[in-house]
Amino acid sequence: MEILLDSVFLTFGSKEVLRGAHLRLKKGKITGMLGRNGAGKSCLLKVLTGQLYPENLYIGVDGKFTKDLFSVPGLINYLPQHTCHPNDMQLGRILSLYGVDTPGFMTRHHHLFADAGLRFDQLSGGTKRLFEVLLLLAADTHFTLLDEPFTHIMPAHIAYVSDEIRRCSARKGILVTDHKYEHVLHLADTLYLVFDGTSKIVEGRDDLVHYGYLR
Ligand SMILES: Nc1ncnc2c1ncn2[C@@H]1O[C@H](COP(=O)(O)OP(=O)(O)OP(=O)(O)O)[C@@H](O)[C@H]1O
Protein backbone atom coordinates (compact mmCIF):
# COMPACT_ATOMS: atom_id res chain seq x y z
CA MET A 1 0.00 0.00 0.00
CA GLU A 2 1.30 3.49 -0.74
CA ILE A 3 0.34 7.15 -0.57
CA LEU A 4 1.64 9.50 -3.22
CA LEU A 5 1.59 13.25 -2.72
CA ASP A 6 2.64 15.01 -5.88
CA SER A 7 2.83 18.37 -7.68
CA VAL A 8 2.18 20.48 -4.59
CA PHE A 9 2.22 24.21 -5.29
CA LEU A 10 1.55 26.37 -2.24
CA THR A 11 1.77 30.14 -1.90
CA PHE A 12 0.95 32.60 0.86
CA GLY A 13 0.24 35.93 -0.84
CA SER A 14 3.22 36.53 -3.10
CA LYS A 15 5.40 34.02 -1.22
CA GLU A 16 5.91 30.68 -2.96
CA VAL A 17 6.52 28.01 -0.32
CA LEU A 18 6.18 24.82 -2.35
CA ARG A 19 6.76 24.47 -6.09
CA GLY A 20 6.14 20.92 -7.17
CA ALA A 21 6.97 19.05 -3.96
CA HIS A 22 6.22 15.35 -3.75
CA LEU A 23 6.38 12.48 -1.23
CA ARG A 24 5.81 8.76 -1.51
CA LEU A 25 4.95 6.81 1.65
CA LYS A 26 4.99 3.03 1.67
CA LYS A 27 3.48 0.65 4.17
CA GLY A 28 6.21 -1.25 6.00
CA LYS A 29 8.72 1.55 5.43
CA ILE A 30 9.93 4.61 7.34
CA THR A 31 10.13 7.80 5.33
CA GLY A 32 12.25 10.61 6.76
CA MET A 33 11.82 14.27 5.88
CA LEU A 34 14.40 16.95 6.64
CA GLY A 35 14.73 20.57 5.59
CA ARG A 36 15.93 23.92 6.84
CA ASN A 37 13.73 26.05 9.08
CA GLY A 38 10.91 27.43 6.96
CA ALA A 39 11.56 25.03 4.07
CA GLY A 40 7.93 23.88 4.11
CA LYS A 41 7.95 20.52 5.91
CA SER A 42 5.01 21.28 8.20
CA CYS A 43 3.13 22.87 5.30
CA LEU A 44 3.60 19.69 3.30
CA LEU A 45 2.21 17.65 6.20
CA LYS A 46 -0.71 20.06 6.54
CA VAL A 47 -1.43 19.70 2.83
CA LEU A 48 -1.31 15.92 3.18
CA THR A 49 -3.74 16.03 6.10
CA GLY A 50 -6.15 18.52 4.50
CA GLN A 51 -5.40 21.48 6.78
CA LEU A 52 -3.96 23.65 4.01
CA TYR A 53 -5.35 23.98 0.51
CA PRO A 54 -2.62 24.54 -2.07
CA GLU A 55 -3.03 25.89 -5.60
CA ASN A 56 -2.27 22.47 -7.01
CA LEU A 57 -2.03 19.00 -5.55
CA TYR A 58 -2.40 15.31 -6.32
CA ILE A 59 -2.95 12.73 -3.58
CA GLY A 60 -3.25 9.10 -4.54
CA VAL A 61 -3.69 5.95 -2.48
CA ASP A 62 -2.48 2.91 -4.40
CA GLY A 63 -2.78 4.91 -7.60
CA LYS A 64 -6.34 6.11 -6.93
CA PHE A 65 -6.98 9.85 -6.59
CA THR A 66 -8.09 10.59 -3.03
CA LYS A 67 -9.28 14.03 -2.00
CA ASP A 68 -9.11 13.54 1.75
CA LEU A 69 -6.92 10.89 3.43
CA PHE A 70 -9.00 11.04 6.63
CA SER A 71 -12.07 9.98 4.64
CA VAL A 72 -10.46 6.57 4.16
CA PRO A 73 -11.18 4.69 7.42
CA GLY A 74 -8.06 3.62 9.29
CA LEU A 75 -5.68 5.03 6.69
CA ILE A 76 -3.68 7.64 8.61
CA ASN A 77 -3.15 9.32 11.91
CA TYR A 78 -1.08 12.46 12.38
CA LEU A 79 0.92 14.08 15.16
CA PRO A 80 1.15 17.86 14.67
CA GLN A 81 4.09 19.93 15.89
CA HIS A 82 2.32 20.92 19.11
CA THR A 83 0.55 18.74 21.69
CA CYS A 84 -3.02 18.20 20.66
CA HIS A 85 -4.93 16.31 23.36
CA PRO A 86 -7.38 17.72 25.91
CA ASN A 87 -5.63 18.58 29.17
CA ASP A 88 -8.43 17.33 31.39
CA MET A 89 -8.77 13.93 29.72
CA GLN A 90 -7.41 10.79 31.38
CA LEU A 91 -4.78 8.79 29.50
CA GLY A 92 -7.00 5.70 29.48
CA ARG A 93 -9.84 7.67 27.86
CA ILE A 94 -7.50 9.05 25.16
CA LEU A 95 -6.17 5.55 24.46
CA SER A 96 -9.67 4.15 24.13
CA LEU A 97 -10.69 6.95 21.71
CA TYR A 98 -7.86 5.76 19.44
CA GLY A 99 -8.98 2.13 19.84
CA VAL A 100 -5.77 1.26 21.69
CA ASP A 101 -5.91 -1.53 24.28
CA THR A 102 -5.24 0.44 27.49
CA PRO A 103 -3.96 -2.40 29.74
CA GLY A 104 -1.68 -3.63 26.94
CA PHE A 105 -0.30 -0.13 26.34
CA MET A 106 0.21 0.57 30.05
CA THR A 107 1.96 -2.76 30.55
CA ARG A 108 4.25 -2.25 27.58
CA HIS A 109 5.21 1.29 28.64
CA HIS A 110 4.85 0.84 32.44
CA HIS A 111 8.20 2.52 33.08
CA LEU A 112 6.98 5.73 31.39
CA PHE A 113 3.37 6.23 32.49
CA ALA A 114 2.43 5.36 36.07
CA ASP A 115 -1.32 5.14 35.74
CA ALA A 116 -3.98 5.30 33.01
CA GLY A 117 -6.06 7.41 35.40
CA LEU A 118 -3.66 10.35 35.14
CA ARG A 119 -4.97 13.41 33.31
CA PHE A 120 -2.99 14.52 30.25
CA ASP A 121 -2.06 17.81 31.98
CA GLN A 122 -0.50 15.90 34.87
CA LEU A 123 2.29 14.75 32.53
CA SER A 124 5.44 16.82 32.01
CA GLY A 125 5.96 18.47 28.60
CA GLY A 126 8.32 15.76 27.37
CA THR A 127 6.16 12.95 28.76
CA LYS A 128 3.12 14.39 26.95
CA ARG A 129 5.05 14.21 23.68
CA LEU A 130 6.22 10.69 24.47
CA PHE A 131 2.67 9.58 25.20
CA GLU A 132 1.31 11.11 21.99
CA VAL A 133 3.95 9.52 19.78
CA LEU A 134 3.53 6.06 21.35
CA LEU A 135 -0.27 6.46 21.20
CA LEU A 136 -0.28 7.19 17.46
CA LEU A 137 2.15 4.36 16.77
CA ALA A 138 0.01 1.93 18.77
CA ALA A 139 -3.24 2.92 17.02
CA ASP A 140 -4.33 0.64 14.22
CA THR A 141 -3.82 2.79 11.12
CA HIS A 142 -1.97 1.94 7.91
CA PHE A 143 0.15 5.11 8.17
CA THR A 144 1.39 7.38 10.97
CA LEU A 145 2.71 10.88 10.23
CA LEU A 146 4.94 12.34 12.95
CA ASP A 147 5.86 16.03 12.90
CA GLU A 148 8.75 16.51 15.36
CA PRO A 149 8.23 13.42 17.53
CA PHE A 150 11.55 13.93 19.36
CA THR A 151 10.94 17.52 20.49
CA HIS A 152 11.16 17.90 24.31
CA ILE A 153 12.14 14.24 24.69
CA MET A 154 15.32 13.29 26.56
CA PRO A 155 17.99 11.20 24.77
CA ALA A 156 17.18 7.86 26.48
CA HIS A 157 13.54 8.26 25.52
CA ILE A 158 14.44 9.27 21.96
CA ALA A 159 16.23 5.94 21.64
CA TYR A 160 13.15 4.18 23.06
CA VAL A 161 10.80 6.00 20.65
CA SER A 162 13.14 5.23 17.73
CA ASP A 163 12.99 1.54 18.62
CA GLU A 164 9.19 1.73 18.78
CA ILE A 165 9.05 3.49 15.39
CA ARG A 166 11.21 0.74 13.92
CA ARG A 167 9.11 -2.00 15.56
CA CYS A 168 5.78 -0.50 14.43
CA SER A 169 7.02 0.01 10.86
CA ALA A 170 6.61 -3.74 10.39
CA ARG A 171 2.84 -3.14 10.26
CA LYS A 172 2.51 0.48 9.05
CA GLY A 173 4.13 3.18 6.96
CA ILE A 174 5.66 5.95 9.07
CA LEU A 175 6.70 9.48 8.13
CA VAL A 176 9.08 11.23 10.52
CA THR A 177 10.23 14.82 10.31
CA ASP A 178 12.45 16.24 13.05
CA HIS A 179 15.55 18.39 13.43
CA LYS A 180 17.19 15.62 15.48
CA TYR A 181 18.47 14.64 12.07
CA GLU A 182 20.82 11.83 13.20
CA HIS A 183 17.83 9.86 14.43
CA VAL A 184 15.83 10.53 11.27
CA LEU A 185 18.85 9.58 9.14
CA HIS A 186 19.32 6.40 11.14
CA LEU A 187 15.65 5.38 10.94
CA ALA A 188 14.68 6.32 7.40
CA ASP A 189 14.42 3.77 4.62
CA THR A 190 13.90 6.71 2.28
CA LEU A 191 14.96 10.25 3.15
CA TYR A 192 13.52 13.41 1.57
CA LEU A 193 15.00 16.85 1.84
CA VAL A 194 12.57 19.73 1.36
CA PHE A 195 14.65 22.30 -0.46
CA ASP A 196 13.87 25.36 -2.55
CA GLY A 197 10.15 24.53 -2.72
CA THR A 198 10.63 20.98 -3.89
CA SER A 199 11.51 17.68 -2.26
CA LYS A 200 14.47 15.53 -3.23
CA ILE A 201 15.41 12.03 -2.21
CA VAL A 202 18.83 12.23 -0.55
CA GLU A 203 21.24 9.49 0.46
CA GLY A 204 23.08 10.70 3.54
CA ARG A 205 25.20 13.31 5.24
CA ASP A 206 27.10 14.41 2.14
CA ASP A 207 23.87 15.37 0.37
CA LEU A 208 22.67 17.18 3.48
CA VAL A 209 25.88 19.21 3.55
CA HIS A 210 25.64 19.87 -0.19
CA TYR A 211 22.15 21.37 0.18
CA GLY A 212 23.11 23.43 3.23
CA TYR A 213 21.13 21.51 5.84
CA LEU A 214 24.34 20.47 7.62
CA ARG A 215 27.61 22.33 7.84
N1 LIG B 1 -0.36 30.50 7.60
C1 LIG B 1 0.76 30.98 7.02
N2 LIG B 1 0.77 32.22 6.47
C2 LIG B 1 1.86 32.71 5.85
N3 LIG B 1 3.05 32.06 5.77
C3 LIG B 1 3.10 30.82 6.31
C4 LIG B 1 1.97 30.22 6.96
N4 LIG B 1 2.31 28.98 7.39
C5 LIG B 1 3.60 28.81 7.02
N5 LIG B 1 4.07 29.92 6.38
C6 LIG B 1 5.42 30.10 5.83
O1 LIG B 1 5.68 28.97 5.01
C7 LIG B 1 7.06 28.60 5.12
C8 LIG B 1 7.18 27.14 5.48
O2 LIG B 1 6.73 26.96 6.81
P1 LIG B 1 6.77 25.54 7.54
O3 LIG B 1 6.17 25.73 8.90
O4 LIG B 1 6.19 24.52 6.67
O5 LIG B 1 8.35 25.31 7.66
P2 LIG B 1 9.12 24.08 8.28
O6 LIG B 1 9.96 23.49 7.22
O7 LIG B 1 8.18 23.17 8.99
O8 LIG B 1 10.06 24.86 9.32
P3 LIG B 1 10.60 24.51 10.80
O9 LIG B 1 11.68 23.48 10.62
O10 LIG B 1 11.15 25.82 11.25
O11 LIG B 1 9.44 24.03 11.63
C9 LIG B 1 7.68 29.55 6.14
O12 LIG B 1 8.34 30.59 5.45
C10 LIG B 1 6.50 30.09 6.90
O13 LIG B 1 6.75 31.40 7.36
TrEMBL record:
It comes from the Bacteria. Residues 3-214 form the ABC transporter domain. SUPFAM superfamilies: P-loop containing nucleoside triphosphate hydrolases. Pfam families: ABC_tran. Keywords: ATP-binding, Nodulation, Nucleotide-binding, Transport. InterPro entries: ABC_transporter-like_ATP-bd, ABC_transporter_ATP-binding, P-loop_NTPase. GO terms for molecular function: ATP binding; ATP hydrolysis activity. Belongs to the ABC transporter superfamily. This is ATP-binding cassette domain-containing protein. It comes from Neolewinella aurantiaca. The lineage of its organism: Bacteria, Pseudomonadati, Bacteroidota, Saprospiria, Saprospirales.
